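Methods — Computational structure assignment.
A single polypeptide chain was analysed. Its primary sequence is given first, followed by the predicted tertiary structure written as structure tokens.
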Amino acid sequence: MDDLVQRLRAIEVSALCDADKGLPVVGPAIRAMVPDVRFAGPALTVVAQDDHLPLFAALEAASAGDVLVVVNHGGSRAVVGELFATEARRRGLAGIVVDGLCRDVAGLRRLGLPFYARGTIPASGATVSRAAVGQRVSCGGVEVAAGDVVFGDDDGLVIAAPDRIAAALESAEAIARAEQAMLAAMAEGRALHDLTNYAEHAERLDAGEDSRLEFRVD
């Protein structure tokens, strides 16, 4: 898992999605609260239905490098804020994803731990739930099991089983290298169209033939 995580952190989520266009992508309503981050790690799931007591149990069960996936479907209260995020960082977690609301956004941004949520609200939840940690959940329309890989940056989140991620990784790395080469060429004045087979691709499509847009970079 460590090698997989390190390789993911060297590319963008979009490159992985280009390598496997069927990868499960978390709905865009769950967005980065902290900008300019990229992270990856195994999911540790917890249901916190308008109640933040389960976060204590989840943090206690978490290992360094885990990503806390918190589900509060339809909730109207914040279940995670700066205190829990600070403890998560102290324990070495890679990030937090909340299918629900959070609070203390200014503190979260100062802390810098990758953090995703549907939005913010100052009101907090109850402290009585004893929901189990590690159960299978649905987060942003994606089914998540403990141990699935969570990979995120400013564009969004992908969550899938480690073998599914690993199968797409080599192609994603090649795409990332090609895109960097294209950006470098464009910085030197070359046109995007000349760095792809755009003209031939469009001609084949117009002729009713199968075709694929490809990069043309060294």
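Note: The longest strand covers residues 38-47.
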